[in-house]
Design goal:
Layout lengths: L2 H8 L3 H9 L7 E2 L5 E2 L2 H15 L4 H12 L5 H36 L10 H7 L4
Antiparallel strand pairs: 1-2
Helix pairs in contact: 1-3, 3-4
Length: 133
Amino acid sequence: MTIGRLAEAADVSVDTVRYYERRGLLAEPRRTAGGFRDYDEAALRRLRALRRAQTLGFTLDEAAGLLALSRDAHADAAAVHRRTVEKISDLDARITELQRTRDALAELADACGGRDETRAECPILRALAEPAS
């Protein structure tokens, strides 16, 4: 299939396919007699797997690592499980930090309320002007 059809089937852009090729995440496909890329179903499955892993929170490098494990005859499910548990821990930490950030913003919004304060009195602007602690 052409690069355009591959991209459409995987719901990505043609530029994404080219980027993955440059990064070595997708093998360079064979070329037709006319010089066009000709992708097979394996390329589509790999592209979809990379994208699915990313939607689950894995970085592109992490997703590639997981797919490499699937091709490694000596890898076991424990390695995949370990990486997944590590990702869950990373996500939990990010969620905690996001919740702290949300709470801080809510506190500032409550303090301000958009009342008729001048800019100098605005607690949100004052908090932004303060040095980070």
